[in-house]
Structures are given as structure tokens and as C-alpha cells.
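Protocol step 4 of 5: obtain the predicted structure for the target chain.
Materials: sequence only (see below). No template structures provided, no constraints applied. The aim of this step is simply to have a reference model before the mutagenesis design in step 5. Sequence pasted as it appears in the construct record:
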Amino acid sequence: MKLDNLKDKNLIQGDLGVWAVFILLCTISLIEVYSASSRMTFGSEAYWQPIMQHGAFMLMGVFIAWLVHFIPCNYFKLFCTIGMFLSLFLLIAVLVIGQKTNDAGRWISIGFIRFQPSEIAKLSLVGFSCFILSSLRDEKGASMIGLKIVALAAFMTILLIFTENASTAFIITIVMFGICFFAQVRRKILVSALLIGMLGIGSVFAIAHSIPESALVKMTESNLTVLHRVPTWVHRITDKQERPADPRQYRPQENPQKAYAKVAIATSNIIGRGPGNSRQRDFIPQAFSDFIYAIIIEELGFLGAFIVLGLYLVLMYRSMRIAQKCKALFPSYLVMGLALMIVVQAMMNMAVAVGAFPVTGQPLPLVSRGGTSLFITCTYIGMILSVSHTAKRKPEYENS
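Step 4 output (C-alpha cells):
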């Protein structure tokens, strides 16, 4: 794409509904991250440092989305194919030289740059899979050759991510199933994959409940990458924290994130305490990230909670409308895959915050404080906006 072409373009293009959702979520993020970051500034005088850093990251993210939304969507075929091979290399590298945070090796540092290869892999896999499924087709839909290539890429990506980040692997699995459904993969194959997946999840839960605590202690002390994460998975799945008969003997410090998130929600009084008035933010270790939705409920009440939930649903709806208007298959599949990646992760984060799902460590897209995740999610938004105004439309939607 020539830069000269930008002179004749408006500064803001694409679906206005997606732009509105994007800006509103970014605004909510700035307010709530500032409120939830008090724990980071406790005991120091750097009161503005967390929000200034997050604000700078947010501005960079908005710039990334704005820049990407000018790129014609057909270019994403090449970018995501290259990204697929690069991300597989990075996922292997993170297992060898990855830096650990909260006992999980998910980060690679190159100089002053620190990023999560799994975030790049998510984006690349979605784009690559949409490219293959839209290109290799037969009279019945996605061809078996295309499906096998996508299955191999997905299997390698999920396998490499699973050992250190099982929740991300789970999200990728759901999104890939959604993409295959939208790409009209044969119903028999989808049903078989769904049954196998349900059987696998059931087996994992059964095994998790059967492992004795003594075995988990030995796994914790193990130096093997796979084994040392097993106790964390088991405790999150089974929630083995004992409940004392006398509520006064309950110790929330044993599982502060879940315990104080419940307190935050329970004390919101439905209408909320008001922005900046959270009391539990000082007790939840990841109040500005994994559990920011609990802080949103405490401060903005259930109305604020439903507004945030509604924004993600609006994003999904607008993406479906964009996909419906696309004449070509690739942009149609791509916009659905990207929207699913954002919305599924958001739903998982919110489910964790309200205690409906085991703790996963997934941030709330565009709202939680972060770096790599924020930039990649903004890239998703930019790509969705690109499809909305650069993809050729079906004849009946040309003037809409």
C-alpha cells in the first residue's frame, strides 16, 4: 500500500460501531486501571506512574489500531502466514529461555522489549487458518486438505502453549472450533471433534479430583516444565481450599483473588460505590488486570457490569454484520475469528471474576492493564476495521 494513497482517505474509516466500542472500552480502562492500581503505589510516592504508563500504552495501542485499519485486508494473508512460522519458533524459544512470572514461563525479553509469544501466536493462527480454509475448498465447503493443515497448525500451537498457559490454549481451541463452524467444515467432523473435546475435558476433571495432595507436592518440587504447573491447574479446577465450619475462621489470604473479588461484588450494593471508591482493590493482587471486572462491579454496580458485557456483545454483533457483507471468504472468516478471540477471552475473564470459572490469569481485553495483550488486541480491532472498509462487499450491500 502506497503512503500517497492515504492523502485521499479520511483519518477515521471503517465501522463506526466498532470504533465506538473500542473508544468506550479504552475510556473505561483508563478510569478503572487508575482506581485499581493503588496497590502498586502503596508505600511509594509514584502515584501517577502506573496510570501514566498504562495511558502511554493505551495511546500506542490506539495508534496501532488506527495504522492497521488503513492496510488492505488481503495483506493480512501474508502477514499471518509469516507470523505463524515465527510464532511457532518463539513458542519453542519461550520454553527454553522464557522468563517466569507467577511461576509460569510465558515471556521473552529482547533488550528492553518484553512480550508474550502466545499473544502473537493467537493472532497468527487465526489469520493463517482463515486464509487456508478460504483458499482450499471443494463443493461441500472447506476441503480435507485445508482442514488437515489448519488442524496441524492449531495442534502445534496449542501443544506449545498448553504447558505454561492452559487457559490460552483453551481459548484458542474454542475460537478454532468457531472458525471451522463458520467456514462450513463438515458437520460430522465438527460433532466428532466436539465429543472428543468434551470427553477430554471430562477426563481432565476426573484426573484432577483423583490426584492426592502428596503427589501434588512432589510435582511442585519437580524441575520438569510440564509437572510443575500441574498442581496449579488441579487446585484451580478442584478449588481444594477447605471451608471452615465457623465462618469467623475463614482466611481469605489463602486465596485472596477469589475471596476479595467476591467481597467486592457483594459490597457493591447493586448501584456501586462510584468510580475510584473501591475498597477491595488494595487486597486483590491482580485488581488492575485479571480481576478488574470485580472492581468495575464494585465501583459501577451491576449497571456498569452489564454495560461492559454489552460492549463486547455489540462488538460481536457488528463483526457478524461486517462478515455478512463481505464478498470474499477470507475477510469474512477473519473478522469472525478475531471477534471471537476478543469476546471469548472477555467472557472467560468476567466468569472468573464472578466465581463462575476457575482462575485463569486472562486479562479483560482492552480494559486490563497490560502490554503485549493490549497491543495485540488493538491489532485485532484494526484488522476488523480494515475488513469493514477495504473488503469487497456483496452486491446487495455495496451502498450500505
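Step 4 remarks: The CA atoms of residues 313 and 343 lie 7 Å apart. The radius of gyration is 22 Å.
Proceed to step 5.
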